[in-house]
Design goal:
This is Adenylosuccinate lyase. Keywords: Lyase. The protein is mainly α. It has a domain of 95 residues. It contains 21 helices and six strands. The strands form three sheets. The chain has a two-stranded antiparallel ribbon with strand order 1-2. A two-stranded parallel sheet has the order 3-4. A two-stranded antiparallel ribbon has the order 5-6. It starts with 15 loop residues before the first helix and ends with a helix.
Length: 488
């Protein structure tokens, strides 16, 4: 086959990303390349011959060795050349294969099969393989990297954010354990869906017409055929395998893709100059801008989000491939070929996100500065509401005050936050100016064992990092759980 420069390829997957992620690209080639597609169809045709030979009691070691040799001898270029004559991909493959196998078994090539018995089965074989040998190892590598990061930063204080505003304190590990949990469940679902992929040998309309003429038990022939490829039969076939087996796997890929894109969004936002809590690894020779030498952009996280934008919408095509008129039409013949592009794009995003997580820097000083309300503040006043220095502790102040029997505790604390804002005070300073409120809160805190004595209450409100609920325990627990699940 004539060599072509990769820079003449049309898809960026085959030039830009094949260079930047060479190892990943090479791991995908045996499963989703055009060469792999033809090779899997050859494997399916050979499996059919073996099934016939087994039922006839003719599966001698000599013939099996010859079939193995024939399987490895088929050149995709030869099949393509034959297709230029036949204008039919499977018939072209059959013609080429008949010449490669021993002549005594040549009549068994494709015997009793229709094209989709080979195509759908070969696709299921490839998708099961790429999922188990490439996709799942990639996803588990990312999940374990997240577990490592969560455990490392389980106790690192961070301000929680809702609606883009400061909420109450959490920890970095807790924030990231969200993705450990979400992605971990998706990985387990992908694992499950991958072993449920099915094949078929049920003929032109799925009713076993052709194989019923050939053998007494067509379903036994089908089982023998599929077992060679590590598959089971679709419960009901038309000319096609029921499309939902593959659809459900691809949909779960898309679920995982969305989780990773959400993580990428969170990470890149936390790298904003005005937030500055996290930082992607940036090599000494790396350039962030062609004109601004100081730039250190979160480009890897942005790249992951961009890949998601390009590939996630293809889920609509997966849904549309559910529909085929009567026992079969060809409306999925072109669209289904692009499943390979989707898998490649998804894997690129997973690999890139793993690189981000493994090199992610955490600025603990900045995290504490932001948590205490310093971000964007001038003269101690960081803005409205929860932006007040220490304002993230308005919640426990309200709850503790309510526990003392004050029915309008929420309104009392709200007014104190307004006073802090108007007078440029920290929340603790504003609370100190309301001694009756502080005494009630301090008494309740001492009663609950939150502080040694009521007089220590003010110190609590000066250190918001002390108020993080079960964030540390939850983060640690989830990291341990999913690390165990990934290694089973």
């Amino acid at each position: 086959m004539q060599a072509r420069s990769i820079f003449q390829n049309l898809s960026p997957i085959d030039h830009r990303y094949s260079l930047s992620e060479k190892e990943l690209f090479e791991s995908l080639v045996p499963w989703i390349s055009e060469e792999a597609s033809i090779s899997a169809c050859v494997k399916a045709e050979i499996a059919l011959i073996k099934a016939h030979l087994t039922l006839r009691g003719q599966d001698t070691q000599e013939l099996l060795t010859a079939l193995k040799k024939a399987e490895s001898s088929i050149d995709p270029e030869t099949v393509y050349s034959e297709e230029e004559k036949t204008h039919h991909n499977i018939r072209a493959l059959v013609n080429v294969l008949k010449k490669a196998v021993p002549q005594e078994v040549a009549p068994l090539v494709h015997l009793g099969a229709t094209s989709v018995d080979i195509l759908d089965t070969a696709l299921a074989y490839r998708m099961k393989g790429v999922t188990q040998y490439v996709v799942l190892p990639l996803l588990k590598k990312l999940e374990l990297a997240l577990c490592d990061l969560v455990e490392r930063e389980a106790e690192t204080p961070q301000v929680g954010r809702t609606h883009g505003q400061h909420a109450v304190p959490i920890t970095v590990g807790f924030a990231l354990s969200e993705y450990v949990s979400r992605l971990g469940k998706s990985i387990l679902e992908i694992e499950k869906r991958s072993v449920e992929l099915k094949g078929k040998l049920a003929g032109a309309v799925g009713a076993y017409n052709a194989t019923s003429v050939l053998v007494k038990d067509p379903e036994l022939l089908e089982r023998l055929y599929l077992s060679e490829l590590g598959l089971e039969a679709s419960e009901h076939s038309t000319q096609l395998v029921e499309p939902e087996y593959l659809l459900r796997l691809l949909l779960e890929f898309n679920v995982a893709f969305g989780i990773i894109a959400n993580l990428a969004d969170d990470l890149r936002n936390l790298q904003r100059t005005e937030i500055g809590e996290l930082k992607e690894n940036f090599s000494a020779d790396q350039v962030g801008s062609s004109t601004m030498p100081q730039k250190r952009n979160p480009w890897n996280s942005e790249h992951v989000k961009s890949l998601w934008k390009a590939f996630s919408p293809r889920v609509m095509t997966f849904f549309m491939d559910q529909i085929s008129e009567h026992q079969r039409d060809l409306t999925n013949s072109a669209s289904q070929r692009f499943v390979a592009d989707y898998v490649a794009g998804f894997c690129q995003a997973v690999a890139r996100m793993t690189t981000v997580i493994k090199g992610l820097g955490v600025d603990r000083e900045r995290l504490l500065y932001n948590l205490r309300g310093g971000a964007g503040s001038e003269g101690g006043n960081a803005g409205r509401g929860s932006g007040i220095v220490g304002g993230v502790l308005a919640e426990p102040a309200y709850i503790l005050l309510a526990e003392t029997g004050v029915s309008d505790a929420h309104e009392v604390i709200r007014r104190i936050t307004l006073q802090a804002e108007q007078e440029g005070l920290t929340f603790a300073q504003a609370l100190e100016k309301q001694p009756e409120v502080l005494v009630r809160i301090g008494g309740k805190m001492a009663e609950l064992g939150l502080v040694p004595s009521a007089s220590d209450a003010l110190s609590f409100f000066e250190h918001p990092e002390r108020y993080c609920g079960l964030a540390v325990q939850k983060a640690q627990r989830l990291a341990v759980k999913y690390r165990s699940l990934m290694s089973r």
